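Summary for the steering committee. One of the milestones for this cycle was to obtain a three-dimensional model of the protein with S-adenosylmethionine bound, which we needed before selecting residues for the alanine scan. The sequence and ligand used are listed below.
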Amino acid sequence: MTSQPTHDRLVTDRSLLATKAYGTGQHLAARQSLYRWQTPSHDLPGIVVDELADVRGVVADVGCGNGKFVARVRNDRPDLDVLPMDVSHGIIRALPGAVVADVQQLPVADGSLGAVLALHMLYHVEDQVRAAGELGRVLAPGGIAIVSTNSRTDKLELEHLWRQAAGDVLGVHEGPARVQLSARFTLEDAPAILGSVFGEIRTIPLPGVIEVTDAEPVVAHLASYEAWADEMGVPFRETIERARDRVNETIRTAGAFRVSCLGGMLVCR
Ligand SMILES: C[S@@+](CC[C@H](N)C(=O)[O-])C[C@H]1O[C@@H](n2cnc3c(N)ncnc32)[C@H](O)[C@@H]1O
């Protein structure tokens, strides 16, 4: 990562998002799977379903990815009409009723939705204030937007691990930081951005600790950043292999490798 504008361009580059990053659900699934080792475990789709208790009509899931939330809402609330949307045609190919759409310009009439979801996706969006405006525009009176992201303190151990492994490869004390997705829209920054549109924002913090006794889930998580491999300033595969060794070393000496997490949901009216 050379400078902030370069980082922003990489994280928001729509052609990269729709192909290497989210052309399929493979990398997203690898990132999501690390949470299986988190304590306490948070049932994010279940929290969304609970927040939708008073909602009727159409619910759009914008940036729906592999449809994890779409499937759960459809299952638990068959009375709702769920509309999945994403900029990547590939990732929504198998999702019934899904359409290609950008959150900055939703193909939806003003005031027509009971709720809109924008989960772990606004950090990929160039103009977040405009996106927030779109989330507000499409809601019917009394409708809610549910947004999620991570804190700037989330999984810092993985950032540290990456820099140390990159340092090993480059023969320096600490190598360059990797691309940090949620840094563009952190849990701490989100209320101010969403507050440009919504009058009431309730944050649900979701803290936890991931503890693994096998390096593979961590390695899979690091490898899920492959879309940005050429931009990391260090050979990607070699760095992953060094990270694997370091995690194994920690597991041998400390019994486990631990990562502290802080994600959160913001319910906006
Ligand atoms: C990290 S994934 C999150 C997927 C899902 N919401 C979840 O929480 O599991 C981000 C998703 O947002 C999509 N995305 C990125 N920019 C977008 C935009 N401007 N409009 C709509 N979707 C976008 C990506 O293609 C990707 O599928």
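Key point for the committee: DSSP finds eleven helices and eight strands in the chain.
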